[in-house]
């Protein structure tokens, strides 16, 4: 339970004013940031600024506008690199380790299509993922295993929704070539001990891939501390634009990986029969990139850093704890995941007794409370937990106690609609 | 919820106390319908009378209130209809739920209580829930060929005297 000081800290949100949608629609109770975050004015302005002041096709142009567009992309890469701790010993950001994609899903597809060749994935080898993965970190590996004859092995959760060290040792063995695990579950909101999983993976000679879609927006993620080799995440869950994703990878690994998509911008030279790839990261960026999007993502990172990721994490932990606490107090609501609110990064999944999640969400929508309901692109997890679907509320720093109170009132209404007073 | 246009008492009565939700003995045909994205699943059964009309309709399965209430209202509506009439009603329901048919008088006359689901046209995420039973029934009737050319097996099974629907 939160102290009165903590409750006072989340009573209202000073940040909503920065978000045009929230500021213009104060009636909207947005509790679906795990699906996509709202965008601050700074990001919307940046997108416009790009097109108004530096719009040209980047990379190939020999005139000032194109050079500026190119520079904006490289500046964004460096900013992202420093944001996730991809810096050299002298602290210099390694922008060349940042590959732009459309979203975290595409980043993971890129890895699943190109990494197997680097590690020589073949029959009898294991690709190890967890049961709490988003479909984006399952299906690409199903495909990779089908193509190579490798086995897909799942790390499972104990009763406390934890991947235990014993489970890591049991599942990540000498046959493991690739381990790909989400940092934070998009359904349960729990954080996995990536550092330990990565250590075990490396001990077994495997490459460690992390889905950071639900962690990079909320935690101070440092790729060196995580000990991973590749990290995928999306701009749109961090207040950046939709359509920009990131793949970070260690330089030597990205160098060894073959191209994913081919065509313009990703080559050094082409003959009738052959092509020489451009260096990383351009090797993975065929075609015209969303330069305005990366420029606006740069602005999103600036906005978040202006608030301070430490501040953001602290506030979001209070909000998630309050959310879980309040849901726990409704006797007709059952949390799917840890009851302990401090275990939740952003998201809390739950069900209302005897009422389908879609009905819950539809009735909440009638009072402008936005939550997610369904399988959350994690059907194997729900099947493992014995749930066909769940509701999910998720918070970001711009939420406040009043949003969560509105959810609780809405849930009481849902219960009354179905069960009378 | 006061003034809630959809989740009203009549709707909830169908969802929570469906009259037609049971396992039918000796159905002429049964068909399973699923909405994979929401986990709604139901198996719809009908028994055809000697004259080819739907004598009994029932369903089993699980899903949200909209899918369940819709299935119950549909079952009630389909009793005594010919398969061809049933298919036409399914088509009308689908047009209603997609907002293509908005004539309330026509909808209430043809679809009876199911016309109350017309507001789902404004809830695109729930269209599939509302349609599930209707889609399942229509697929079953069409796949078994009872609406147009009657298939031999179904004809034999229900000792049906085909009464001149368009082949």
Q: Span between N and C termini of chain A? A: 28 Å
- CATH class category of chain B: Alpha Beta
Q: What spatial form of chain A do the alpha-carbon principal axes imply? A: globular
In what range is the share of β-strand residues of chain B? 5-15%
Gyration radius over CA of chain A: 22 Å
CATH class of the largest domain in chain A: Alpha Beta
Helix content of chain A: 40-55%
The largest beta-sheet of chain B arranges its strands as: 1-2-3
Structural class of chain A: alpha/beta
Class based on secondary structure composition and strand pairing of chain B: alpha+beta
The biggest sheet of chain A amounts to:
7 strands, mixed
Oligomeric form? heterodimer
How many β-strand runs of chain A? Answer: 15
Number of strands of chain B: 3
Main traits of this protein?
heterodimer, A: 421 residues, alpha/beta, Aspartate Aminotransferase, domain 1, Aspartate Aminotransferase, domain 2, 2 domains, seven-stranded mixed β-sheet, four-stranded antiparallel β-sheet, 15 strands, globular, B: 167 residues, alpha+beta, Sufe protein. Chain: A, three-stranded antiparallel β-sheet, disordered C terminus
Sequence-ordered SSE layout with sheet pairings:
The complex is a heterodimer of chains A (421) and B (167).
Chain A (H helix, E strand, L loop, with lengths): L3 H7 L9 H5 L4 E2 L10 H13 L10 H20 L14 E4 L2 H16 L6 E5 L8 H10 L2 E5 L9 H7 L4 E7 L11 H10 L3 E5 L11 H4 L3 E5 L10 E5 L1 H6 L10 E4 L4 E3 L13 H17 L1 H20 L4 E4 L10 E6 L4 H9 L3 E2 L1 E3 L4 H7 L4 E5 L6 H19 L2
Parallel strand pairs in A: 1-13, 3-4, 3-5, 5-6, 6-7
Antiparallel strand pairs in A: 2-8, 7-8, 9-10, 11-12, 12-15, 14-15
Helix pairs in contact in A: 1-12, 3-11, 4-11, 5-6, 11-12, 12-15, 13-15
Chain B lengths: L8 H8 L12 E7 L4 E9 L5 E9 L2 H14 L4 H15 L6 H8 L15 H17 L8 H7 L9
Antiparallel strand pairs in B: 1-2, 2-3
